[in-house]
Design goal:
The complex is a heterodimer of chains A (about 100) and B (about 230). Chain A contains five helices and three strands. Chain A is α+β, with helices and mostly antiparallel strands. In chain A, β2 (about 65-70) and β3 form a beta hairpin. Chain B has about 230 residues and is mainly α. Helices cover about 70% and strands about 0% of the residues of chain B. Chain B contains ten helices and one strand; from the N terminus they run ααααβαααααα. In chain B, α1 (about 5-25) crosses α10 (about 200-229) and α4 runs antiparallel to α5. The chains are: A alpha+beta (about 100), B mainly alpha (about 230). The interface of A and B includes residues 19, 22 and 99 of A.
């Protein structure tokens, strides 16, 4: 195996390796489902920005969106999938390995 | 190329985002508190005494959950568990759902209620189908209703993927099984019960209630500290 194949950056996922999307997955992993507004507020994103990130994650089958109503108020809930949970775990492991390796240099 | 600083920043984002969700989700202390109070509420039914008139003529369903052993509580012991446990689970599910909707962070509490109530019904079915030998000595003290609570906690811990809840469920399960099989009054200094044998089952219930209420207190403190941090 070559050094490049061994390098921890090869474990980083293009879809997940991004602050907002990683934050979304980290939040979803701690609950059954999380409301759009709460994610937006916590990660300090605009609604449009968060919608685009969620669309990317949904397209990759990492999250599922549920649209509904709370009384008359429309609410969107987001749920992590098994693939999303695995992607988050892999990304965090790759980042930790990267930090450990680069700190040793 | 990702630098070490970028990687650290991303890991910090993961930690802070996860912590924000944990701090906002409905407290895990409440279900444990409610179940602990249900176990505490059963104490008066487990004071032993002379058989009460009519206890043996009562429907099998009601004394199967403890009435046959705890003569003082009579059929009310079974009625208590059959009403209090489902009511507690319904309350827990309702409260967690409402709190989750308000906070924007929903948790999986339905498995706790479904497993708890389902196994209570299964237990009644086993006990009333003259299949008591299947669970053998577990039924002798009439404390079998403690077991569906344990099963509910195990299912809840798995559904929530929580190590903390897993620890609570293992400790409580051990306490509940030991309470069904052993008289914890035997290990207490004589002065505690002072020969009053009618209270000899209460330490078993207090042990299980103590585990639940103690866990609720630990969760309440940890969650409060987390919210402040």
């Amino acid at each position: 195996m070559t050094q490049i194949e061994n390098h921890p950056t090869t474990g980083l996922d293009e879809v997940v390796h991004q602050r907002a999307r990683l934050g979304v997955l980290a939040m979803l992993a701690e609950a059954d489902k999380v409301e759009f507004g709460f994610i937006q507020q916590t990660l300090e994103l605009t609604a449009g920005n968060l919608s685009r990130h969620l669309a990317t994650l949904e397209k990759a089958d990492l999250v599922r969106l549920e649209k509904g109503y709370d009384g008359r108020r429309p609410r969107t809930w987001v749920r992590i999938t098994a693939e999303g949970r695995a992607a988050l775990k892999q990304e965090v492991a790759a980042l930790r390995e990267l930090v450990a390796r680069l700190s040793d240099l | 190329m990702t630098t070490a600083d970028e990687a650290r920043t991303l890991l910090a984002t993961v930690d802070s985002a996860a912590r924000a969700t944990r701090d906002a989700r409905p407290t895990r202390a409440l279900p444990l508190l409610v179940l602990g109070l249900v176990v505490l509420g059963a104490l008066p039914f487990y004071v032993l005494g002379d058989p009460v008139d009519g206890v043996y003529e009562a429907p099998l369903l009601f004394w199967a959950l403890g009435g046959s052993v705890t003569a003082q509580g009579g059929i009310w012991t079974g009625i208590y568990w059959f009403v209090a446990l489902p009511a507690a689970y319904v309350f827990i599910a309702w409260w967690c759902r409402r709190a989750g909707r308000r906070a924007g962070v929903a948790v999986r509490v339905a498995p706790l209620a479904v497993a708890g109530i389902g196994l209570l019904i299964l237990l009644v079915a086993i006990l009333t189908q003259s299949a008591v030998p299947i669970i053998g000595d577990l039924a002798v003290r009439g404390l079998t209703p403690l077991l569906p609570i344990a099963a509910g906690l195990v299912v809840w811990a798995i559904a929530e993927r929580s190590r903390g809840l897993a620890v609570v469920s293992v400790v409580y399960t051990a306490a509940a099984i030991s309470a069904c099989l052993y008289d914890w009054a035997n290990v207490l200094p004589y002065a505690v019960l002072d020969g009053r044998w009618e209270y000899s089952l209460l330490p078993n219930l207090l042990l299980c209630a103590g585990v639940l209420l103690g866990s609720a207190a630990v969760y309440a403190v940890l969650e409060r500290r987390g919210a402040r941090a």
